Structures are given as structure tokens and as C-alpha cells.
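Quick check before the chapter quiz. The format below is the same one you will see on the exam, so make sure you can read both the input and the output lines.
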Amino acid sequence: MNKRAIGAVAGLALPAALMLLQPFAGLGFEGTAVVAALLGAIVWWVTDVLPDYITAIVMSVAFVVLAGVPFEVVFSAFSSSTWWLMVAAFCLGLGMQRSGLLKRLAHAVMRKFPRTFRGQAAGLTLASVVSGPFIPSLTAKCAILTPLALSISDQMGYERKSKQANGLFLAVFTNVRNLAPAVISASFVGYMVLGLMPADLQAEFDLVHWFASALPWFVVVMVLNYIAIVWMHEPKGERLRGKVASLNAEPKLNPESASEDLGPMTGAEKRMLAIMSVTVLLWVLERWHGIPSSAVALAAVGAMVAAGQFRAEDIRDGGIAWDMILFMGVALSLAAVFSYVGADEWVVAACMPVLAAVAGNPYAVILGIVALTIALRFVIVSEAAFINIFMVFAVPLAPQLGVSPWIVGFVVYVMANPWFVAYQNLVYLAAVGSVSGKMTEHVGLARYCAVFLVICLIGLLVSVPYWQWMGLA
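Here is the expected output.
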């Protein structure tokens, strides 16, 4: 039997056995059925039995038929603002590519930084960090920057879905994410984490105090992440082997881009720049004007259509990755499904004794939170929902664990970002979707996920003495 056949059988047998044996005490039949269907879907995703979005739809139908979850709950995310923001982000990315504006931006970055993999990775890293504090939506930032990474990769002459293309994509995606735990304003999730802490800590941890507390972690992770991306993805000819690489070892640039004079901006580029400038400005000022980022993004799509930057045919003829959009809608809905059957709170409550067993040792506490977070994010898909539920149980335990509730929230926020399986991380899906899945291949990106999480863990452990000096541990 081949891998797909084995996976197909295992993906059916595992849920059937779980529903028959009911091994999860206290979870109930509906909750067990939901967990069983998700585990079966994971087996199918890993073994590539069906296209990812088809497996997701089959899983959703199982939620309705086997677990009795209402249809409107199972597919609730398709009416959510987050899903519509992702749809709009895909359209914006395509519009920027079609206008030629991304090509011009790519040339600008390439002129400012060396035309080597490490030089362009540094440029994308800087762009991701600089834009971070001002746009509170990680999805929106990925919609702007990952198409830029694709354009630079093409200009550098790297094959799509090669390790170099993966590396430039990761230079954007990981650094957009890295800044979020360090700067509250970089994501709305930061304000949610702060709001789950006791009132006295909420008053204490303003933007400056939060960043100061997170600074050692941020510096360590930024440096190690850049080194790891370059080491794992740089073309062999560019790598320094004890001496400066020769000029003929540099990458072969795309002939069209090496010396091409783009000339003055075209009308299409100017219109796209105006639309994106207003969109970004409104995203930055969202806390003041109150218009949701999803509404701003959809309005920008409307402006693109009106200005002739985007056509209805682009949606019909494959310009938009609808398979990925459908997959994301199902992934977003998992949080509502697990909440409906009570599986999310049951899972977290069952794991809390692990933390109680390591109380008094900040290193052990951090390792415990990290292990639980990575494991439970396979089951609780929504990052925001997971952080909310975990902190409800863990924050009251913080004094007994010997650490500040801020450390609990920060560690969970840092580690709630895996993408071993695509459905785990909606920002990752949005980033991949912003380039229509054409730039990267998931296997290589998932492999780097393990490296990235180890880097984040190193940053946390290195920060412990600093946190002890601050009185947080």
C-alpha cells in the first residue's frame, strides 16, 4: 500500500476507534467526536490523501453529522471579519503585482541592500520590523510584504518553491510575527493578552514597559532567526567559507531585472500606490477612527476595481487562491466548534497539573508552558481563543508558580505560533495565500517551524535572569 492508501485507512480507523472507546473522561460524546474528526483530518493532511481544502470540508461535514454541531457553527467563520480581511488581502496582493508597483518596490529594496540572499533577507527583515508597530493586523502586514518578497525572489532569479524562495518568505513572515509579542501595538492580540492580566499589571505594562521587558527576547530571536534563515536557505555559492566569496559565486540575477530601467511610475502604479497609502494609513489609525481593518481592506478592493486595477475576471480565472481561502474559512471556524462542545476548556484544564508540578523554577515553568502550548495548538486552532482559554486557567496559578502573570502571557503569546500543519496558523495561511501559494512549498516551511520555535525558546530562557532582575520571576 502507498502512503495515501495507508493514510486514508488510518484517517478513518482512528476516529472510529476513539468514538467507540470514548477514552477522554469528562469530554462527552460530542466533544470526543469533534476531536476524533480533527485527528483523522490531520492524518489525511499529513499523508496527502485529498487536497487540503477538500479534507477540511469533509472534516466539517463530520462535525455536523457525527458530533451534531449546528451547520451555522461549523461554517461560522465565513461570515467573520477575519475571513473577509483575508479575502481582501489576497486581492490587494494580486492588485499590487498586476500594477507593477511590487516590481518597483523590489528594485528599491535591491538597490539599498546587497544583491545577495543575505542582503535581501536583511532588507525584508528591516521592512517587516519597521512596519510592525504601526499596523495592528499581522494579516495586513503579510498581505503587503509577502508579495514583495516574491517579487524580490523572482528578480534575484530564484526558482519558485526553492529553498531560497522559502527563505525570503520566512524573512518576512517570521519577522512580522517576531515583533508582535515585543510591541503591543504590532497586533491586537497583544492588547487582548494585556487585558487578561490583573488590573495592577495592566496599569503597569504600558507600551514602553512591555517592550523593555521583552527586549532581551526580541534581540536574541531577531539575531538567531536571521542567522538560521541565511544558513539554511542561502545558495551554496554565496556562503562564506572562511574567506569572502568570489564575485562569480553570486546568484545569477534575472536578466530582465539586473540592469532594467523601470522609468517613471506608470498611471497604474500611481493609482495602486495611492490606494495602498490610504489603506495603510487607515490601518495605522484604526484605534482612533474605529473602522475595522476588514472594512478598510474591502473598500480598498472596491477602489481597485473602480480604478481598473482589478477585474472580475481575476477572481474567476484563478488569480485568487480560492482553495486556500476555503481552507482558511474552515480553520477559522474550528474555534467556534471546539467552544460549542466544550473541548477547548476541557483540554486546557486537563493539562494544568503539568504546570503545578514545576512550580518554583522559572526555567521549568517556561518549559512547561512551551510544551503545553505547542501540543495544544494542534487541537485549539485559533491563536486568540487558545491564549484566552489558557490564561484564564494559568494566570491565577502564576503566584504559585513563582512568576508574574506577565511572563505567563508573554510565553504563551510567543509560542502560540506553530505552522507544522497549515491549519494551525491563520497568519501563515494568509501569508502563503497572499502570493497565491506560488512562492513556497509547505514541507520546507514546516521544517523551519521547529527551528523557529527552538529559537523562541532560547530567547525565553536567556531572558530569565533579566526578568528576575526586574522582579518578574
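If your answer matched, good. Confidence is low (pLDDT under 50) at residues 240-259.
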